[in-house]
Design goal:
Distance between the termini: 42 Å
GO molecular function: diguanylate cyclase activity
Number of domains: 2
Strand order of the largest sheet: 2-3-1-6
Keywords: Membrane, Transmembrane, Transmembrane helix
InterPro entries: Diguanylate_Cyclase (IPR050469), GGDEF_dom (IPR000160), Nucleotide_cyclase (IPR029787), Rev_trsase/Diguanyl_cyclase (IPR043128)
Protein name: GGDEF domain-containing protein
Protein backbone atom coordinates (compact mmCIF):
# COMPACT_ATOMS: atom_id res chain seq x y z
CA UNK A 1 0.00 0.00 0.00
CA UNK A 2 1.34 3.46 0.88
CA UNK A 3 5.14 3.66 1.12
CA UNK A 4 7.06 5.85 3.54
CA UNK A 5 7.70 9.14 1.74
CA UNK A 6 10.67 10.27 3.80
CA UNK A 7 11.59 13.57 5.44
CA UNK A 8 12.34 15.51 2.23
CA UNK A 9 9.01 14.63 0.59
CA UNK A 10 7.02 15.24 3.73
CA UNK A 11 8.55 18.69 4.12
CA UNK A 12 8.13 19.43 0.41
CA UNK A 13 4.47 18.52 0.92
CA UNK A 14 4.21 21.38 3.42
CA UNK A 15 5.09 23.84 0.64
CA UNK A 16 2.50 22.30 -1.70
CA UNK A 17 -0.20 22.45 0.95
CA UNK A 18 0.71 26.03 1.82
CA UNK A 19 0.35 27.05 -1.85
CA UNK A 20 -3.08 25.40 -1.99
CA UNK A 21 -4.14 27.09 1.27
CA UNK A 22 -3.15 30.55 0.04
CA UNK A 23 -4.78 30.00 -3.37
CA UNK A 24 -8.07 28.86 -1.85
CA UNK A 25 -7.91 31.79 0.59
CA UNK A 26 -7.70 34.22 -2.32
CA UNK A 27 -10.73 32.59 -3.96
CA UNK A 28 -12.65 32.94 -0.71
CA UNK A 29 -11.68 36.59 -0.26
CA UNK A 30 -12.67 37.44 -3.84
CA UNK A 31 -16.03 35.62 -3.36
CA UNK A 32 -15.32 33.13 -6.13
CA UNK A 33 -15.96 30.50 -3.45
CA UNK A 34 -19.04 31.21 -1.31
CA UNK A 35 -17.48 30.69 2.12
CA UNK A 36 -17.31 32.91 5.20
CA UNK A 37 -13.66 34.14 5.36
CA UNK A 38 -13.69 33.67 9.14
CA UNK A 39 -14.55 29.99 8.67
CA UNK A 40 -11.73 29.59 6.20
CA UNK A 41 -9.37 31.36 8.60
CA UNK A 42 -10.22 28.69 11.17
CA UNK A 43 -9.49 25.93 8.64
CA UNK A 44 -6.19 27.64 7.82
CA UNK A 45 -5.21 27.68 11.50
CA UNK A 46 -5.81 23.91 11.63
CA UNK A 47 -3.70 23.48 8.47
CA UNK A 48 -0.84 25.53 9.95
CA UNK A 49 -0.89 23.34 13.06
CA UNK A 50 -0.70 20.32 10.74
CA UNK A 51 2.28 21.82 8.91
CA UNK A 52 4.10 22.32 12.20
CA UNK A 53 3.29 18.75 13.25
CA UNK A 54 4.72 17.33 10.00
CA UNK A 55 7.90 19.37 10.34
CA UNK A 56 8.53 18.22 13.92
CA UNK A 57 7.76 14.53 13.42
CA UNK A 58 9.08 13.94 9.89
CA UNK A 59 12.65 13.11 10.91
CA UNK A 60 11.83 9.79 12.56
CA UNK A 61 8.24 9.08 11.55
CA UNK A 62 7.21 5.87 9.80
CA UNK A 63 4.64 5.22 7.11
CA UNK A 64 1.93 6.11 9.64
CA UNK A 65 2.65 9.78 8.85
CA UNK A 66 1.70 9.17 5.20
CA UNK A 67 -1.61 7.68 6.32
CA UNK A 68 -2.17 10.55 8.76
CA UNK A 69 -1.55 13.08 5.97
CA UNK A 70 -3.93 11.19 3.69
CA UNK A 71 -6.76 11.32 6.25
CA UNK A 72 -6.05 14.96 7.08
CA UNK A 73 -5.98 16.08 3.43
CA UNK A 74 -9.25 14.34 2.61
CA UNK A 75 -10.94 15.70 5.73
CA UNK A 76 -9.89 19.25 4.87
CA UNK A 77 -11.06 18.95 1.26
CA UNK A 78 -14.38 17.50 2.41
CA UNK A 79 -14.87 20.41 4.83
CA UNK A 80 -13.97 22.95 2.13
CA UNK A 81 -16.45 21.44 -0.33
CA UNK A 82 -19.27 21.32 2.21
CA UNK A 83 -18.62 24.86 3.45
CA UNK A 84 -17.77 26.33 0.05
CA UNK A 85 -20.75 25.63 -2.18
CA UNK A 86 -21.16 21.83 -2.11
CA UNK A 87 -22.10 20.62 -5.59
CA UNK A 88 -21.55 24.15 -6.99
CA UNK A 89 -18.08 24.59 -5.53
CA UNK A 90 -15.27 25.08 -8.06
CA UNK A 91 -12.94 23.52 -5.49
CA UNK A 92 -13.86 19.96 -6.49
CA UNK A 93 -10.67 20.22 -8.54
CA UNK A 94 -8.75 19.84 -5.26
CA UNK A 95 -9.74 16.18 -5.17
CA UNK A 96 -8.24 15.59 -8.62
CA UNK A 97 -5.08 17.48 -7.66
CA UNK A 98 -4.79 15.27 -4.58
CA UNK A 99 -5.32 12.11 -6.64
CA UNK A 100 -2.71 13.22 -9.17
CA UNK A 101 -0.16 13.95 -6.42
CA UNK A 102 -0.76 10.62 -4.65
CA UNK A 103 -0.56 8.52 -7.81
CA UNK A 104 2.54 10.38 -9.02
CA UNK A 105 4.33 9.74 -5.73
CA UNK A 106 3.35 6.06 -5.66
CA UNK A 107 3.34 5.19 -9.39
CA UNK A 108 6.73 3.49 -9.10
CA UNK A 109 5.22 0.80 -6.92
CA UNK A 110 2.56 -0.15 -9.47
CA UNK A 111 0.06 -1.43 -6.89
CA UNK A 112 -3.43 -1.69 -8.36
CA UNK A 113 -5.01 -1.99 -4.92
CA UNK A 114 -3.48 1.36 -3.93
CA UNK A 115 -4.91 3.00 -7.06
CA UNK A 116 -8.32 1.46 -6.31
CA UNK A 117 -8.17 2.74 -2.71
CA UNK A 118 -7.17 6.26 -3.73
CA UNK A 119 -9.87 6.43 -6.42
CA UNK A 120 -12.53 5.18 -3.99
CA UNK A 121 -11.50 7.71 -1.34
CA UNK A 122 -11.43 10.55 -3.86
CA UNK A 123 -14.87 9.62 -5.19
CA UNK A 124 -16.19 9.36 -1.63
CA UNK A 125 -14.99 12.88 -0.79
CA UNK A 126 -16.58 14.24 -3.98
CA UNK A 127 -19.85 12.45 -3.18
CA UNK A 128 -20.00 13.62 0.44
CA UNK A 129 -18.64 17.08 -0.35
CA UNK A 130 -21.43 17.82 -2.83
CA UNK A 131 -24.20 16.21 -0.75
CA UNK A 132 -27.12 18.57 -0.21
CA UNK A 133 -26.21 20.88 -3.06
CA UNK A 134 -28.37 21.70 -6.10
CA UNK A 135 -28.17 19.37 -9.10
CA UNK A 136 -26.51 16.71 -6.99
CA UNK A 137 -27.35 13.86 -9.38
CA UNK A 138 -25.69 15.53 -12.36
CA UNK A 139 -22.75 16.58 -10.18
CA UNK A 140 -22.21 13.01 -8.97
CA UNK A 141 -22.50 11.58 -12.48
CA UNK A 142 -19.93 13.98 -13.90
CA UNK A 143 -17.44 13.33 -11.13
CA UNK A 144 -17.96 9.57 -11.29
CA UNK A 145 -16.92 9.73 -14.95
CA UNK A 146 -14.04 12.01 -14.00
CA UNK A 147 -12.68 9.57 -11.42
CA UNK A 148 -13.08 6.62 -13.81
CA UNK A 149 -11.17 8.51 -16.50
CA UNK A 150 -8.48 9.29 -13.95
CA UNK A 151 -8.19 5.59 -13.06
CA UNK A 152 -7.82 4.55 -16.70
CA UNK A 153 -5.15 7.19 -17.31
CA UNK A 154 -3.32 6.23 -14.10
CA UNK A 155 -3.30 2.55 -15.06
CA UNK A 156 -1.43 3.48 -18.23
CA UNK A 157 1.01 5.66 -16.29
CA UNK A 158 1.66 3.00 -13.66
CA UNK A 159 2.06 0.27 -16.28
CA UNK A 160 4.64 2.27 -18.22
CA UNK A 161 6.45 3.21 -15.04
CA UNK A 162 6.47 -0.39 -13.85
CA UNK A 163 7.88 -1.64 -17.15
CA UNK A 164 10.69 0.91 -17.02
CA UNK A 165 11.81 -0.56 -13.67
CA UNK A 166 12.17 -4.14 -14.95
CA UNK A 167 15.14 -5.94 -16.40
CA UNK A 168 14.15 -6.68 -20.03
CA UNK A 169 15.36 -10.28 -19.93
CA UNK A 170 14.15 -11.58 -16.57
CA UNK A 171 11.26 -9.17 -15.86
CA UNK A 172 12.40 -8.60 -12.29
CA UNK A 173 13.65 -5.23 -11.01
CA UNK A 174 16.83 -4.06 -12.68
CA UNK A 175 19.78 -3.00 -10.55
CA UNK A 176 19.08 0.74 -10.45
CA UNK A 177 15.40 0.38 -9.60
CA UNK A 178 16.09 -2.40 -7.13
CA UNK A 179 18.71 -0.46 -5.19
CA UNK A 180 16.35 2.53 -5.07
CA UNK A 181 13.65 0.33 -3.55
CA UNK A 182 16.11 -1.19 -1.08
CA UNK A 183 17.14 2.30 0.01
CA UNK A 184 13.48 3.05 0.67
CA UNK A 185 13.21 -0.12 2.76
CA UNK A 186 16.18 1.06 4.83
CA UNK A 187 14.52 4.46 5.34
CA UNK A 188 11.36 2.71 6.57
CA UNK A 189 13.40 1.53 9.57
CA UNK A 190 11.76 -1.88 9.69
CA UNK A 191 13.78 -5.14 9.85
CA UNK A 192 14.09 -7.18 6.66
CA UNK A 193 16.21 -9.97 5.16
CA UNK A 194 18.42 -9.51 2.11
CA UNK A 195 19.69 -12.50 0.12
CA UNK A 196 22.60 -12.25 -2.33
CA UNK A 197 22.44 -15.09 -4.89
CA UNK A 198 25.15 -16.11 -7.34
CA UNK A 199 24.20 -18.82 -9.84
CA UNK A 200 26.87 -21.53 -9.76
CA UNK A 201 28.32 -22.85 -13.00
CA UNK A 202 26.48 -20.42 -15.27
CA UNK A 203 29.44 -20.16 -17.65
CA UNK A 204 29.21 -23.90 -18.31
CA UNK A 205 25.52 -23.51 -19.13
CA UNK A 206 26.35 -20.78 -21.65
CA UNK A 207 29.14 -22.91 -23.12
CA UNK A 208 26.90 -25.96 -23.44
CA UNK A 209 23.66 -24.37 -24.70
CA UNK A 210 24.74 -21.00 -26.02
CA UNK A 211 23.66 -17.59 -24.76
CA UNK A 212 20.03 -18.24 -25.74
CA UNK A 213 20.02 -21.27 -23.45
CA UNK A 214 21.66 -19.25 -20.69
CA UNK A 215 19.04 -16.53 -21.08
CA UNK A 216 16.31 -19.13 -20.77
CA UNK A 217 17.84 -20.44 -17.54
CA UNK A 218 18.01 -16.92 -16.08
CA UNK A 219 14.37 -16.31 -17.00
CA UNK A 220 13.27 -19.58 -15.41
CA UNK A 221 15.28 -18.86 -12.26
CA UNK A 222 13.78 -15.36 -12.01
CA UNK A 223 10.26 -16.80 -12.30
CA UNK A 224 11.02 -19.30 -9.55
CA UNK A 225 12.39 -16.56 -7.29
CA UNK A 226 9.27 -14.47 -7.87
CA UNK A 227 7.05 -17.46 -7.13
CA UNK A 228 8.87 -18.04 -3.84
CA UNK A 229 8.23 -14.62 -2.32
CA UNK A 230 5.30 -12.34 -1.62
CA UNK A 231 4.12 -9.75 -4.19
CA UNK A 232 5.42 -6.90 -2.02
CA UNK A 233 8.90 -8.47 -1.66
CA UNK A 234 11.77 -7.54 -3.98
CA UNK A 235 13.53 -9.66 -6.59
CA UNK A 236 16.38 -7.80 -8.31
CA UNK A 237 18.76 -8.80 -11.08
CA UNK A 238 21.95 -7.34 -9.66
CA UNK A 239 24.09 -8.18 -12.66
CA UNK A 240 24.84 -11.14 -14.93
CA UNK A 241 23.86 -14.26 -12.97
CA UNK A 242 23.57 -12.45 -9.62
CA UNK A 243 20.23 -11.70 -7.94
CA UNK A 244 19.10 -9.95 -4.77
CA UNK A 245 15.94 -10.93 -2.89
CA UNK A 246 14.50 -8.88 -0.01
CA UNK A 247 11.68 -9.95 2.29
CA UNK A 248 10.52 -10.06 5.92
CA UNK A 249 13.18 -10.72 8.55
CA UNK A 250 13.69 -14.40 9.24
CA UNK A 251 11.83 -15.62 6.14
CA UNK A 252 14.27 -15.86 3.24
CA UNK A 253 16.92 -18.49 4.00
CA UNK A 254 14.60 -21.49 3.66
CA UNK A 255 12.86 -20.06 0.60
CA UNK A 256 16.11 -19.49 -1.26
CA UNK A 257 17.29 -23.04 -0.52
CA UNK A 258 14.06 -24.46 -1.92
CA UNK A 259 14.57 -22.55 -5.18
CA UNK A 260 17.47 -24.87 -6.03
CA UNK A 261 15.98 -28.14 -4.77
CA UNK A 262 14.26 -29.06 -8.04
CA UNK A 263 15.56 -28.85 -11.63
CA UNK A 264 14.35 -25.96 -13.74
CA UNK A 265 12.29 -26.78 -16.83
CA UNK A 266 13.68 -25.33 -20.06
CA UNK A 267 13.46 -26.12 -23.77
CA UNK A 268 16.76 -28.02 -23.36
CA UNK A 269 15.27 -30.27 -20.72
CA UNK A 270 15.26 -30.00 -16.95
CA UNK A 271 18.46 -28.27 -15.87
CA UNK A 272 19.80 -28.80 -12.38
CA UNK A 273 21.13 -25.58 -10.86
CA UNK A 274 23.06 -24.69 -7.76
CA UNK A 275 23.48 -21.26 -6.30
CA UNK A 276 25.66 -19.71 -3.64
CA UNK A 277 23.65 -17.39 -1.45
CA UNK A 278 24.12 -15.33 1.65
CA UNK A 279 21.26 -14.00 3.78
CA UNK A 280 21.66 -11.11 6.21
CA UNK A 281 19.18 -9.10 8.25
CA UNK A 282 18.93 -5.31 8.39
CA UNK A 283 17.85 -3.97 11.80
CA UNK A 284 17.08 -0.31 12.60
CA UNK A 285 19.21 -0.17 15.75
CA UNK A 286 22.33 -1.16 13.78
CA UNK A 287 22.07 1.94 11.59
CA UNK A 288 23.77 0.21 8.64
CA UNK A 289 23.75 1.94 5.26
CA UNK A 290 22.58 0.18 2.12
CA UNK A 291 26.20 -0.11 0.95
CA UNK A 292 27.16 -1.83 4.20
CA UNK A 293 24.18 -4.17 3.95
CA UNK A 294 25.10 -5.19 0.39
CA UNK A 295 28.70 -5.80 1.47
CA UNK A 296 27.51 -8.01 4.33
CA UNK A 297 25.25 -10.02 2.01
CA UNK A 298 28.05 -10.40 -0.54
CA UNK A 299 30.44 -11.59 2.18
CA UNK A 300 27.85 -14.10 3.44
CA UNK A 301 27.47 -15.44 -0.09
CA UNK A 302 31.23 -15.90 -0.42
CA UNK A 303 31.37 -17.68 2.93
CA UNK A 304 28.88 -20.20 1.55
CA UNK A 305 30.83 -20.47 -1.70
CA UNK A 306 34.10 -21.39 0.03
CA UNK A 307 33.12 -23.06 3.29
CA UNK A 308 29.93 -25.10 2.82
CA UNK A 309 30.16 -28.59 1.39
CA UNK A 310 27.45 -29.63 -1.02
CA UNK A 311 27.09 -31.36 -4.35
CA UNK A 312 27.82 -29.05 -7.27
CA UNK A 313 26.96 -29.34 -10.95
CA UNK A 314 29.56 -31.22 -13.02
CA UNK A 315 32.82 -29.31 -13.54
CA UNK A 316 33.21 -30.51 -17.13
CA UNK A 317 30.96 -31.28 -20.02
CA UNK A 318 27.33 -30.30 -20.33
CA UNK A 319 25.43 -29.25 -17.18
CA UNK A 320 23.33 -31.97 -15.62
CA UNK A 321 19.91 -32.26 -17.26
CA UNK A 322 16.87 -34.50 -17.06
CA UNK A 323 15.22 -34.87 -20.42
CA UNK A 324 11.45 -34.75 -20.24
Amino acid sequence: MLQRSGTRRWRAGIVSRAIVSVSVGLLVLTRVVPMDPRVYLGLTAVAVAHFFFIWKTSVRAGVWLDWFNLVFDLSMVLAILQLGGRSESPLAILVYLWLFAMVTMNARYGELRLLALLAALGWGVLALGGLGGPGYGAYLGVHTMGVLLFVVTSLTLMGERRQSLLDPLTQVLHRGAGLERLAEWVRRREPFDLAFIDLKGFKRINDAYGHAGGDEVLQALARRLLAGVRPQDLVIRYGGDEFLVAGPAGSLAGRIRRVFEEPIATSMGRVRLAGDHGVVTWRPHEGSSLETLLARADAAMYRMKYTESREDPPETGRPATDRA
